[in-house]
Structures are given as structure tokens and as C-alpha cells.
Amino acid sequence: MTVYLVGAGPGDPGLLTARALELIAAADVIVYDRLIPASALDGARADATLVYAGKEGGGESMPQAEISRLLVAHGSLGATVVRLKGGDPFVFGRGGEEASALREAGVAFEVVPGVTAGVAGPAYAGIPVTHRDAASAVAFVTGHEDPDKPSSALDWEALARFPGTLVFYMGVRQLRSIAASLVACGRDAAEPAAVVERGTLPGQRVVAGSLGTIADEAAAGGVRAPAVVVVGEVVRLRERLDWFGVVRPLGGLTVAVTRARAQASALADRLRRLGAAVVEAPAIRIVPLDGPAMSISGYDLICLTSPNGVRILFERLLAAGGDARVLAGARVAAIGPGTASALRSHGVVADVVPPERFVAEGLVEALAGVPVSRALVARAAEARDVLVEALRARGAAVDVVALYETVAEPLSEAQVAAVCSSDYVTFTSSSTVRFLLQSLGDGARLGGRLVSIGPVTSAALREHGLEPDVEAARHDIDGLVEALLADAVSGE
Ligand code: SAH
Fold first, then answer.
1. Any idea what the CATH number is for the domain that residue 232 is in?
2. Which residues are catalytic?
3. Ligand 1: distance of its center to the CA of 184 in Å?
4. What pTM was computed for the model?
5. What is the CATH number of the domain that holds 266?
6. 256 CB within 6 A, ligand 1
7. CA of 472 relative to ligand 1 center, distance in Å
8. What secondary structure does DSSP assign to 89-120, as a single string?
9. φ, ψ of residue 343 in degrees (nearest 5)
């Protein structure tokens, strides 16, 4: 019935408004631009029509008249239409033109303001655009125009005199002439200035200097759109007020996650929260193996060596009409805290978990004082035999059940390229090493630092002629993140 002109905020998905999310979820048609958060459309209905109206790089975008025509057409057919734009729809977003076209055609519309990049970008850089002592006004200015052109709609002398902060949108390409024009019209070349690139996004970068130096600094840093340029005394506050860089120690870094898709999200989320841009490149996939209906009775020890093993064991038990009670008579051992927590989620508290070294050798040690006569080791088909052999050497009868196998998950060319150019590549098992290198092929070279979860994974890297740069001291996801973080912070 209505066309909603909706702001999607500057990029951080957390800055989408509640109203924007509600409308995205309800829309029949969504016409969206390039600069919207990557996940903004995740909540759209599966049957919604999504129309991309932005431009790629310097390429052609859909002409404005065509976009307006599309909104009018869908709107007058009675559809719920969301026109989703980066930032705020009425700040350099041509939302005013679209609203006019809708009004002219008699199509009802509503405007949902968004968080604009000119406020949010500086805020995420620790720069308040106004400040009681430093700026009592702020001007939002288009930097799209060449100030040297006589036709420029901007009054540069007035801007130079403006008593407050200037924030330029779309100003990266013209930065040099913007700064020069302001200085030529009398603004102090020593006034602080900053460029905030990809503000609020994981790749946010800030280049700061003065009006006199900012163009050189931005050029040296290779700053590209989207970026806002802030000119004013408020830029100085960044030294004290930067917070994004503090809470996001991995900001600006790309980290590749190679573990299986189903397990990747916990690690990817942790890394994202620390500010990293995550490349998801699942090199492996876990395939449950069909096995005979399981009988677990008669064992005094049951060993589980991965969270996947736990999940699949319980799937098999349930399929056979059983549940956690079949484990009742036995001691249950887990190789590490991840496996123990998977057991806990099925109502079983592990009796034995190594205090450190979450590898087979650690479990063997932890079991040293535990009496065992008949053991079941439930694990991956391709697992090492360390545990089984150690138990047998102690005189125990050991059965092994292969619950799943790990197979290669092919990666796209784009994924391979992204992994190769990542700053860090994380390996959480020897199979991630083996299968990732297999998918990369001969020509591909990993450019980033290699992070291994523990000695077994490190050995797999060395087998392939690669030296891990970082090895976790605790062999689980927390330990891996901790080690990566320590490395990133020390390398700064
Ligand atoms: N309506 C948008 C602005 C669209 S014009 C808003 O209110 O934010 C596009 C310009 O917005 C870009 O050239 C850049 O100057 C700015 N911009 C958009 N997203 C940005 C971001 N994440 N970081 C810095 N600048 C951004």
C-alpha cells in the first residue's frame, strides 16, 4: 500500500533502526542501494522481490528516474515497498526526489530516518561533531562537486567562514581541492581534519592531520570511498575519545576461518566482535557415518573426542530409540571443554576432562588414575590412534566406533583469493590444514599469519612445509582467539 523510504544506517548492522528491521521483514518489494549493511536483507521474506539499484564502483547505477518509476509502479499496485538507502534517506540520499515522485503519482509514502554517516562515522572515530567547547554548529556538505568548477553550487567563502565543524560526504576524490579551497578562502591550514573510511564497519580506518596535510595523508594511506571528511577542532578530541579502536583490537584485520560451516559461527562471531572482518572459508565438512544400531552397554569408560562426535553419537542413540541413560553405567571422558560442553547440552556431565592440553595425549594423562577394563572410543573415522593404543597398552579391551568422517568442502575462486589475502588464517584441526591446502591448489600462497589451535594441527602445517606463526596455548576456540589477539596486539 505504502512506499517506505528507509534509512539503513552507515554500515554497522546494529545501527539499523527497529522500524527499519520491522519494515524489511514485512516488505513485498525492497529496492536497495550499495551502501547498506551486508546483513540488512537477512530478515526479508523469502518471497520478497529484491531489486538492486546501486552502482558497482564507478559503473552505471539505475538512473534516478527509473528508480522513482519503479517505486511508483510497485507502490500503485498495492505492494508494501521498502526503498532502503544507506545512512539517512534525506541526507544526500535523493530521498527527497523519490518522495516528490511518489507524491506526484498519488502513492502514499512514509520516511524512516536512519543514522547518517556524517554523524556515525566521526562518532565511531571518537569525534563528536559538536562539542560545548569546540563546535556549536555542524554543516553537512557534499564533496561531490569540484570546487574549481565555476558552476559549483557551494559557496566556499561561506564554508570557510562557517563557525563550526564541516563534514563532507562523497569527498574522497575531491579532497585535495576541497582542502585547498577552504584554505584559499581563509580557513586555517592548521585546523585539524580527519577522514573516516568505512565508518562503523569492521574495516573502519581513520586518517587524521590538518587541513593543510590531510590530502597527502589520505593519498598516502590509500583512502577510498565511502569516507567522510571532518574539518574542525573537534577532531582533536579523538586522541582522548577513541573507543572503537579500543574495543575492537582486531579492527582493520581480515581473519579466515577454515572450520566446517556448522561449527564456524562461534569462532567467526568472537572474531567479529573483536573487530575483525571474517572470511568464512569452510575447508571441511562433517559427514555422519551410518553405523549399526549402537549398543553402549558393558563399558566402564566412554571417550568422546570432539563436539561433532557428541552430536552424532546422540543422533544415533535417539534414532535407535535410546537417550542419555544408556551412558549411565560408564565413566564419560571428554577430550576438552568444547566436547564437555556438548555433552552437558545433552544432560551428561563428563567425569574426566584434561585440565590442559586438549589433545589425545592430554586425555591419556587425565585417565592415568582411572580404572578401565572395557572402553568405547567414539570418534572420527580418521582420528589418530594415540588414545586407543594407550588404553590397550594398559590392558583394557577397547572398541572404536567411527561416528563421522571429515571430507573436503570445495572453495570458490573468490573464497580462495580471500583466504590468500587474509591477515590471519586460522586452523582448528589437522583436517582443516590438509583440506584447505588441497583446495588452494599449487599456485595459491597464503599471505597471512598462520594460527594453529595446538601441536597436532601445527604438525600438520609443518608436514605441508608451513610454519605456524601462532600456536594456541589452550587448545580450544577461546585459546585460539586469545593467541591470535596477543599476536595482533604485539605486532602493532
Ligand atoms: N544517505 C547517506 C549518504 C549517502 S551519500 C547517509 O545519510 O549517510 C554517500 C556518502 O556517504 C559516501 O560517499 C560517504 O561520504 C558517506 N558514507 C556512507 N557510508 C559511509 C561509511 N560507512 N563511512 C564513511 N562514509 C560513509
1. 3.30.950.10
2. 33, 55, 170
3. 26
4. 0.71
5. 3.40.50.10090
6. no
7. 39
8. TTSSSSHHHHHHHHHHHT--EEEE----HHHH
9. -60, -45
